[in-house]
């Protein structure tokens, strides 16, 4: 009876189980709770990030995780994916589920990089926005371990050779053979351990050299083909990684091909900032006042300066795209006492006039009244762009137009004038 209509079988977070004669109960796999109402079990909005239990990935390989929604959403759901450590790179970083195509699992690939500093990471999926019922859904996480067989074999070899190695605090990171004194220094977690077996030390050095490939990488956190969009006055960020430990400080320049996008200054990896930790780059959209439409920017990162021979070589520049969203409009702004103003004959009122955005050239406005009973002064207003030499009234400097009700001594009733 628990298979009747196949309730819940299409959901991975709960299943029907028999519980007494003629009764149907449902077990939530996440909490282990038993509930009678299958809708409470099967239709709770949740995100699920799954993969093989006890997953271990060799560094340099890629693992595949599955990201799904537990219940049908009322609208789109955007899920961001992040890693706890830089040597695990999930892709895509953002997944979109729609109300029409929510039930299929989306694959999250996790590329692992060679690392002397990390051997595990946690991948987290977080609802960034969308359908209201999913905004409170808990984050989904998946932990995986990474291993490097070559480095492990190197450690075993040193131990077998009877070296002086001992584990003071954590894994072995690097070693280098020093001809002077016929000794090897192993460096890790701030400790130096000496070795007398040159063969074992050089094996580890070979592994270290394999990992030590000069490179840098941009990580935007966006899905493939997605472009970061920012409203004028706001900013976005991305991260920059080095691929290996440099022998000297490395300075990366960050530039934009469009003045509407302003990246922060250079990125420097030196003693004050460990090479294996990512650095954040901020790109701001300039809040100018010109109605020039949305702007596309290419942000380029390249090596500016270093004494490291590998990084000083012609490493190719890398770029990421950013779009600024213009919040300015072309228009005329009028300010007066009210939309309809009553003025007694012989008296006047004032209308303040300004432009809604900064023009690229001088703008001259003609001012006129629909009837002779109302006279306007002046009949022209000129606004200069803020970049114009010699100044002139700016677009946001209100200019006054005086509207006078003509005293004509004729009993012609009240007159309505439209000032344009």
Mean pLDDT value: 77
Provide a count of the helices: 4
Q: Which oligomerization state do the chains in this entry correspond to?
A: single chain
* N-C termini distance: 79 Å
Structure class: mainly beta
DSSP strand content: 35-45%
How would you describe the shape? Answer: elongated
Strand order of the largest sheet: 5-12-11-7-9
> How many strands?
30
- Uncertain residue ranges: 1-23, 158-202
Radius of gyration: 34 Å
Largest sheet: 5 strands, mixed
As a percent range, the share of helical residues equals under 10%
Give short descriptive properties of this protein.
420 residues, mainly beta, 5-stranded mixed sheet, 8% helix
Task: Write structural notes for this entry.
The chain has four helices and 30 strands. The chain has helices at residues 38-42, 149-160, 198-211, 309-312, and strands at 14-18, 24-28, 34-35, 47-50, 56-58, 62-69, 77-83, 88-91, 94-97, 106-112, 120-130, 140-147, 174-178, 183-188, 191-195, 216-219, 228-231, 235-242, 250-256, 261-263, 267-269, 279-285, 295-306, 318-325, 332-335, 348-355, 363-366, 374-377, 380-383, 399-405. The chain starts with 13 loop residues before the first strand and ends in a 15-residue tail after the last strand. Mean pLDDT is 77; it is low at 1-23 and 158-202.
């Amino acid at each position: 009876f628990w298979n009747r209509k196949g309730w819940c079988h299409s959901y991975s977070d709960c299943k029907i189980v028999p519980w007494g004669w003629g009764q149907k109960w449902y077990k939530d796999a996440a909490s282990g709770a038993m509930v009678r109402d299958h809708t409470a079990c099967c239709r709770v909005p949740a995100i699920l990030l799954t993969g093989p239990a006890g997953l271990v990935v060799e560094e340099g390989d890629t693992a595949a995780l599955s990201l799904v929604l537990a219940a049908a959403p009322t609208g789109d759901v955007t899920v961001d994916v992040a890693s706890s450590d830089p040597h695990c790179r999930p892709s895509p970083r953002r997944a979109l589920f729609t109300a029409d195509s929510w039930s299929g699992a989306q694959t999250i690939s996790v590329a692992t990089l060679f690392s002397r500093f990390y051997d595990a990471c946690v991948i987290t999926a977080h609802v960034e926005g969308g359908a209201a019922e999913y905004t409170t859904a808990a984050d989904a996480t998946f932990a995986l371990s990474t291993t490097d067989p070559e480095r492990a074999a190197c450690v075993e070899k040193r131990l077998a050779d009877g070296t002086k190695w001992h584990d003071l605090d954590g894994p072995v990171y690097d070693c280098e053979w020093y001809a002077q004194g016929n000794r090897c220094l192993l460096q890790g977690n701030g400790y130096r351990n000496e070795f007398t077996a040159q063969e074992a030390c050089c094996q580890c050095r070979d592994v270290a050299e394999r990992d030590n490939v000069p490179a840098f990488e941009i990580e935007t956190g966006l899905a493939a083909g997605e472009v970061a969009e920012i409203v004028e006055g706001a900013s976005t960020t991305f991260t920059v990684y080095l691929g290996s430990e440099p022998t000297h400080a490395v300075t990366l320049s960050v530039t934009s091909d469009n003045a509407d996008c302003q990246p922060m200054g250079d990125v420097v990896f030196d003693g004050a900032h460990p090479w294996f930790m990512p650095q954040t780059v901020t790109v701001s959209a300039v809040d100018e006042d010109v109605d020039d439409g949305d702007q596309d920017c290419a942000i380029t990162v390249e090596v500016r300066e270093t004494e490291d021979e590998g990084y000083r070589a012609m490493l190719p520049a890398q770029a990421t795209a950013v779009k600024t969203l213009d919040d300015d409009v072309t228009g005329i702004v009028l300010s007066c006492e009210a939309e309809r103003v009553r003025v007694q004959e012989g008296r006047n009122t004032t209308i303040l006039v300004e432009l809604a955005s900064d023009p690229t050239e001088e703008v001259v406005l003609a001012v006129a009244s629909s009837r002779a009973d109302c006279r306007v002064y002046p009949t022209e207003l000129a606004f200069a762009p803020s970049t114009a030499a010699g100044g002139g009234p700016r677009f946001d400097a209100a200019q006054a137009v005086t509207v006078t009700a003509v005293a004509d001594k004729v009993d012609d009733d009240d007159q309505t004038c439209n000032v344009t």
